[in-house]
Amino acid sequence: MRGQTAELGAKRIAQNGYEYTKVEVDGKSQWRLSHHIIAEQMLGRPLRDDERVSFIGSRRNLSEDNIKVTLKGQTSVNRRLAQVEARIAELVAERDELKSQL
Question: What's the number of CA atoms in the CB half-sphere (13 Å) around residue 77?
Answer without folding.
Answer: 5
